[in-house]
Structure formats: C-alpha cells, structure tokens
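W.,

You were right to be curious about this one. When I first looked at the sequence I had no strong expectations either way, so I just let the prediction run and decided to look at it fresh. Below is the sequence, 287 residues in total, followed by the output.
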Amino acid sequence: MLPWRRVLRPLAALLLALAVAAVPAATASASGTAATGGWNDYACKPSAAHPRPVVLVHGTFGNSVDNWLGLAPYLTSRGYCVYSLDYGQLPGVPLFHGLGPIDKSAGQLSAFVDKVLAATGAAEADLVGHSQGGMMPRYYLKFLGGAAKVHALVGIAPDNHGTDLIGLTNLLPYFPGAEDLLKATTPGLADQIAGSGFLTKLNAGGDTVPGVRYTVIATRYDEVVTPWRTQYLSGSDVRNVLLQDLCPLDLSEHLAIGLFDRIAFHEVANALDPAHATATTCASALS
C-alpha cells in the first residue's frame, strides 16, 4: 500500500466521525414513531411512510448495541421502528458474539423476527446486517422460511461468498489441526472461510430467493472480507453498490463502513425506501 494511503485512510475515517458529531442535535429529534429512548422499543408502531420494522444484525465479534450506535439512531430519527438482536453466543464469552454455528444463528434471527412482527403487527420486516450479519440472514431466507417474512435485506460489507482474509486462510493447511481447532472452538469463524461447507450449501442453486430485494454496500478498502468483490450477489432484484462510486474520498474500511459511515447509512436508507431515494454523495456525510 502506498504511504499516502496509510495516512489518508485513518484521516478520512476521523473526518467522517467528526461529521457525525457535527450533525445538529435537532436531526436526532426528527419526527417519527420511535420512542425517544431509541431503538428496541416494542411499543413502536410502524408508520404509513415506513410500514416495516427494521432488524439490525451485527457482525462477528459484535453485539446488539455496540455495532449499531451509529446506524440505529440514524434510522430511528427518520421514523423507523428499529430492533437489534444478539446471536451466535458462545458459553463464557460475553459481549463478543457471532461466533456460534451460523445455521444456528439463523434460527435465532428467525425467532427474533417473529417477535418483532408480533409486537409491531407488521406483515414483513427489513433486515440490515454488517459483515456476517449481512450474510447470515440469507440462510434464514433460503432455508428457514424467512422469505415470506422479509421484504429487503441490506448487507453492509457482507461476506456472501466467504473471505480469504487477504490470503491468510490459504495457510491453514500448513498448520495441521488448525482448521479443526477453529471449527471446534469458533464454528462461526470457520463457516465464513471461503469454500466452507456452510457457504457451499448457502450459495448452491443461486445467491437469492424470489420475493426479497437485496442490496450490498461494499468498500474497496475492506481488509476483512477479501477479495471485496466476493461480497456482491448475483440474481434478480439485486443492487450491488461500491462506496467509492458514491464518494471517491471515502476511505472507510470494514469496520468504519458499518459503525459510523453516514455515506453508507444514507445508502441504507435509500435501500429501505427506494421510492424516496436521493443521490448519495460525499455530502451525505453531513446529512
């Protein structure tokens, strides 16, 4: 990597973070149905403008709070009923979730969506996930009946076809027992390695299922889900978006795009309400 990029990338991330802090507080109090306490308000009733609740699905090593301190308020301030869950917990491991078998995690998501739909009275939900959270719901949609309950899935830097971690996973065969140890201790990580049995099953027969709209928002600077183009989906009703096509100055990597990048957040809002979408540009960092 060129030295100037090493300097500019964290600088751009810092500028985006400052942009978030600079947004007037009035934005956070915009009219909407969500309670002032924030998201996971089970008294929230979806409005005519936003008739579907939004379920946020955290990434590996994430949780229902920390992963969404940026996006959840962004959406609630715009009138969405927003919910988030914890999934993939391992015994004795607090806070850091998304480590259990991904098919089991999809079952947890299924139960959570049912809970949200029952509370809100909505017929369908929209899902927004970061990293594993953008990929795991596809198992729910494809194998657990989720397609009948979900209108749209938005993946932020999702590992839809796995990752080689910049080629590091190719070294596993040179360390006898390493892959077996990974599967035994953190199966959720093993499931995300490109070519895993889980991903082979997930992607067999096509990436998508009928009746669901898919959006993928990727960054070319992703250092976790690599190569970054493997995040894209193929199929009908799919929109693949590269963050740098929206704002060439945005140098967000894997974490930043999901945690605080308001340019990515603006594109999430467009995906949730395409009928009222507006152009996403570098200026969206201040929206």
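Here's what jumped out at me. Residues 3-22 form the longest helix (20 residues). And, maybe more interesting for your project: The longest strand covers residues 150-156.

Coffee later to discuss?

I.
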